[in-house]
């Protein structure tokens, strides 16, 4: 770990450290309710009022932008001018700032102004963390910021890789943040989970539930490192098996695979629409099997593009096979299914040079360990008919 400075500072000292707010920083999202609650909390604080952590990588603000802007508005309402908010605001941001400015002024008028001023200046503080090394910032994201809203992996990765764009143009930073924030966080987090699942299976390891503590999995190498493999990755198209490169490459890589995952959903809707509608994602066992299906389909689409559509029934059948043996499929059981298969479908996809090789592979041999399992008197797994038996099973169980 590099040099890390941690100290409690007043809001006035915090704001004095910030000369401007870069255009590429996160969109200002605080609404009137959050702003009103913050002002009220400050006003009624009788003693020290901690307002979470603010994290800097050297002199670059990594986490805490929304609080900085809101506190700046409060200081302006009291006649102070820290910092100058030199940033080109979107219409939505301007609307929020104007509304929060109105709320702050009105709220302060409802309290004793001198008392509020004293509380803001003397009682309210943040824990300031300044890390010399970018990777050390990861260790200090906590759950005590923004009045208890916990940072998720999407927040952490955006901040981490944005700071790695220090040498990139302002436009690239703005465009990367704008596109990142155009996606639903749930969609980003689902992609990260599928990627993590694939990476572990490709290494012969079991997958596990992904949390923000596993963000390090998506921490890559700086693009200026003088390694031959870094140059190869930068010079080639994206690949799910490629090492991660920090900064803009990571953002573009994520955007590429969000689009590809959406294509997988479209292909699935075209190829197996009836079955897809009957998968119950509120059922944990079915959800796990469906995630395996998506991970394998994404991996296949990464290699074979839209030709992957002809493989989707085989991938679905393989992914849901554990449910024919036991209606309760734990993650441990799913890991065993993938890692202990006589011939893993993941490896068949990985080492096949043509989609036809995967399509011709005998699924019964792949599921040979389940050959004596009968399903409702229909015979062994190797004789299961996709269109009839799988469709019937889903219809009955859903």
Automatic annotation (TrEMBL):
InterPro entries: DUF7834 (IPR057156), GmrSD_N (IPR004919). Residues 173-363 form the DUF7834 domain. It comes from the Bacteria. Pfam families: DUF7834 (PF25202), GmrSD_N (PF03235). Residues 12-161 form the GmrSD restriction endonucleases N-terminal domain. PANTHER family: DUF5655 DOMAIN-CONTAINING PROTEIN, SLL5132 PROTEIN. This is DUF262 domain-containing protein. It comes from Bullifex porci.
């Amino acid at each position: 770990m590099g040099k890390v400075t941690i100290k409690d500072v007043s809001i006035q000292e915090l704001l004095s450290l910030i000369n401007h707010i870069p255009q590429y920083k996160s969109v200002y999202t605080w609404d009137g309710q959050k702003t009103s609650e913050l002002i009220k909390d400050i006003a009624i604080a009788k003693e020290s009022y901690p307002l979470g952590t603010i994290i800097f990588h050297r002199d670059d603000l990594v986490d805490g932008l929304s609080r900085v802007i809101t506190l700046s508005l409060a200081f302006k309402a009291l006649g102070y001018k820290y910092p100058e908010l030199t940033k080109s605001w979107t219409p939505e941001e301007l609307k929020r700032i104007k509304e929060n400015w109105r709320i702050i002024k009105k709220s302060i008028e409802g309290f004793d102004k001198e008392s509020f001023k004293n509380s803001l200046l003397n009682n309210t503080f943040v824990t300031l963390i300044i890390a010399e090394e970018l990777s050390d910032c990861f260790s200090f994201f906590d759950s005590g910021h923004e009045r208890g809203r916990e940072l998720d992996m999407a927040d952490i990765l955006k901040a981490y890789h944005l700071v790695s764009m220090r040498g990139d143009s302002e436009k690239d930073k703005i465009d990367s943040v704008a596109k990142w924030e155009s996606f639903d966080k749930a969609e980003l987090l689902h992609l990260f989970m599928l990627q993590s699942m694939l990476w572990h299976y490709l290494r012969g390891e079991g997958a596990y539930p992904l949390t923000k503590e596993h963000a390090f999995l998506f921490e890559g190498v700086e693009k200026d490192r003088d390694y031959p493999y870094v140059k190869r990755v930068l010079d080639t198209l994206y690949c799910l098996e490629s090492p991660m490169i920090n900064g803009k490459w990571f953002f573009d890589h994520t955007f590429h695979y969000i689009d590809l995952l959406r294509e997988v959903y479209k292909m699935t809707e075209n190829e197996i629409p009836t079955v897809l509608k009957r998968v119950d994602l509120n059922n944990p066992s079915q959800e796990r099997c469906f995630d395996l299906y998506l991970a394998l389909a994404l991996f296949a689409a990464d290699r074979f593009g839209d030709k992957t559509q002809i493989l989707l029934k085989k991938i679905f059948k393989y992914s849901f096979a554990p449910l024919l043996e036991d209606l309760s499929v734990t993650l441990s059981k799913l890991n065993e299914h993938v890692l202990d298969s006589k011939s893993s479908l993941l490896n068949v996809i990985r080492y096949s040079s043509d989609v036809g090789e995967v399509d011709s592979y005998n699924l019964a041999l792949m599921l040979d360990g389940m050959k004596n399992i009968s399903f409702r008197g229909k015979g062994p797994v190797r004789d299961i008919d996709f269109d009839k038996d799988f469709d019937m099973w889903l219809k009955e169980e859903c």
